[in-house]
Design a protein that fits this description.
With about 140 residues, this protein is of the alpha/beta class. The chain is globular and about 35 Å long.
Length: about 140
């Protein structure tokens, strides 16, 4: 699949992780080949405050990305991921897990994006994220 046809979305289930979420969204938006859409499904009790902050600080700076920031129907990472999938329109959907620790510089090449599976769950690393408790089993995107 060539970059000109790559059409991807990022779904992020979150709960009380505003600081980490903001960093995650910035790194995703600054990729060499940014996502078509970013969908945040927030189960936090004060999700509207975080939504307003994210819209003000990040969304306005990246109008080429379709952004959705919604309240979780159910506070469960699996349910939140499923809710995000239902909202996604991109051909490929990546997830950033709520316990991901991003430790990379923005603007990594799209050719460096990777994905892998662990126990049947899609594990995605846009720029070298480490997933706590999940072994590093990544395969480069081709």
């Amino acid at each position: 699949m060539s970059q000109s046809t790559l059409n991807w979305a990022l779904v992020i289930p979150t709960y009380k992780r505003e600081a980490v979420l903001q960093q995650c969204l910035l790194f995703a938006a600054q990729q060499t080949y940014p996502p078509k859409e970013i969908i945040v499904v927030d189960a936090s009790p004060d999700w509207e405050k975080t939504q307003a902050h994210i819209i003000r600080e990040i969304v306005a700076k990246y109008p080429e990305i379709d952004w959705q920031y919604v309240r979780a129907k159910r506070a469960s990472s699996a349910a939140q991921r499923n809710q995000g999938i239902e909202l996604a329109t991109a051909e490929i959907v990546f997830f950033s897990f709520p316990n991901s620790v991003w430790e990379c510089l923005p603007r990594r090449s799209a050719s460096k994006q990777s994905l892998g599976t662990h126990s049947g769950t899609l594990c995605v690393s846009l720029c070298g994220a480490k997933h706590e408790g999940i072994p590093n089993r990544r395969t480069p995107l081709t």
